[in-house]
Specification:
Strand content: 5-15%
Number of helices: 4
Number of domains: 1
CATH architecture: Orthogonal Bundle
Distance between the termini: 30 Å
CATH topology: Arc Repressor Mutant, subunit A
Strand order of the largest sheet: 1-3-2
Shape: globular
Radius of gyration: 14 Å
Number of strands: 3
Length: 103
């Protein structure tokens, strides 16, 4: 594991998210998890609703949390009508996918 990465299992992370009842924390945790799992560590990242629905967070809760995190300067968001938002983590280096990889 890289420096600063805690070996936290997915089930532990899910329990923390479920018990904090914080959509903002869930958004940050899911973003970080998606970034860690991607071998290229792309930033920005598409943020679909599926993981949040599994945690009991509805799409409007995710969007509200993203707006609050954006106001705090923790993320920047490309809002797309009827599509998953594209979120940039401001604390990670920018590393965009080449346009030909978007499929």
């Amino acid at each position: 594991m890289g420096a600063g990465v805690l070996p936290v299992s997915k089930s532990v992370l899910d329990k923390v998210i479920e018990n904090t009842h914080s959509a903002q924390f869930a958004v940050l945790a899911v973003l970080h998890e998606l970034w860690l799992r991607d071998k290229y560590h792309w930033n920005p990242i598409k943020l679909p609703d599926t993981k949040f629905l599994a945690l009991g967070i509805l799409p409007n809760g995710k969007l509200r949390a993203l707006r609050e995190l954006e106001k705090l300067g923790l993320v920047s968001v490309e809002w797309r009508e009827k599509k998953s938002p594209i979120v940039t983590m401001t604390w990670k280096p920018i590393k965009r996918k080449p346009p030909s990889w978007d499929g």
